[in-house]
Design a protein that fits this description.
By secondary structure, the chain is α/β, with parallel strands linked by helices. The protein is 47% helix and 14% strand. The protein has an eight-stranded mixed beta sheet, with helices on both faces.
Length: 329
């Protein structure tokens, strides 16, 4: 099983839409895929299932991401081994929960003592342990994790359990600036996780080796999102291309160079995993149908040339699908 986070500390870059689409494409290709909504805004969950289904997931007997780790968060017991939500063949979901905010508070409070107190480190690894159990339960080959746009305690804990991360970026000043914060924060997190592992990865520890995440997700690459298409060499309008030309340089300086020093970056020539343009009015139809854009047609309300554009949109994800299949080999 390979666990990949789709993560950026800047919001509004289309990361949830991106994750939902690549998860569906992988499922179409016969790759059993588990989506994890680790963002308390629950956008991935709202995209994938209906409000009535979400309500059941949030109930006392539900299988939302908070419900399954609630006993650990409240010091009442261990994780609850509840089946993830099956969306369709080869596609499953660990639903999000707005109550993750309470869990994040606990993560922040206990992080300073995670290297000395068993209860504190147990809290930090609760989601990781549940994902390990759930992915084995549904026999997932790929786990895709959606995270909120911040550098907080919850993202630190969840990213610590991932093998790789992908960063969607918009061609704008804010995304470029954000790469600076992202690279620096990963260096800090790496050192802090190493401190925890030195304590708990010892003979006669309270934890088995497979219960402890490495805390070292590797940067797989970035995706250019949300630009407006033009029939030019850059593939985007001149306005977007002003910053689009600067993105790759910023990624290499602020992420690749820094993370390569701690072996948290896949070594390759090209880190651009694709360009996903602004799909404009196709997205609302997709959201309303709880389906990826390429699955939408006349039944979902599309008409005219929109039907063809929706169907062809699946090709936009070819590069990232090949990259994911490549790391599975």
């Amino acid at each position: 099983m390979v666990q990949i986070a789709v993560f950026n500390n800047k919001g509004g870059v289309g990361k949830t839409t991106y994750l939902f689409h690549i998860a569906n494409i992988l499922a179409d290709r016969g790759v059993c895929t588990l989506m994890v909504d680790a963002d308390s805004q629950c956008n991935l969950t709202a995209y994938a299932i209906s409000d009535s289904q979400i309500e059941k997931c949030w109930s006392e007997s539900g299988n939302s991401i908070y419900r399954v780790i609630q006993p650990v968060s409240e010091n009442m017991g261990d994780i609850r081994k509840r089946q993830p939500y099956k969306i369709r063949e080869n596609l499953h979901l660990i639903p999000g929960d707005i109550d993750l905010n309470m869990y994040e508070d606990r993560l922040g409070e206990t992080w300073p003592s995670a290297s000395v107190q068993p209860a504190s480190i147990r809290l930090q690894i609760a989601i990781y342990r549940y994902i390990q159990w759930a992915s084995a339960r549904v026999e997932a080959k790929i786990v895709l994790v959606d995270l909120g746009p911040n550098l907080g305690a919850l993202n630190r804990a969840v990213l610590g359990g991932c093998d790789f991360f992908i960063t969607p970026l918009s061609p704008d000043l804010f995304s470029i600036k954000g790469t600076q914060n992202l690279g620096e924060k990963f260096l800090v997190w790496h050192e802090e996780w190493e401190n925890n592992l030195r304590k708990w990865r010892k003979p006669n520890s309270d934890f088995s080796e497979n219960e402890l995440p490495l805390g070292a997700p590797k940067f797989l690459g970035y995706v250019m999102q949300q630009h407006n298409i033009r029939d030019t060499k850059a593939g985007m309008t001149k306005g977007w291309n002003i910053f689009g030309q600067q993105v790759d340089k910023a990624v290499r300086i602020n992420i690749v160079q820094k993370l390569s020093k701690i072996k948290q970056c896949v070594e390759k020539q090209n880190y651009l995993l694709g360009k996903i343009p602004n799909l404009h009015s196709l997205i609302p139809y997709s959201l309303n149908a709880h389906k990826p854009v390429y699955m939408c047609g006349s039944k979902e309300g599309l008409t005219g040339e929109h039907i063809g554009k929706a169907k062809e949109s699946v090709k936009l994800y070819d590069d990232i699908i090949q990259a994911i299949l490549g790391i599975m080999e």
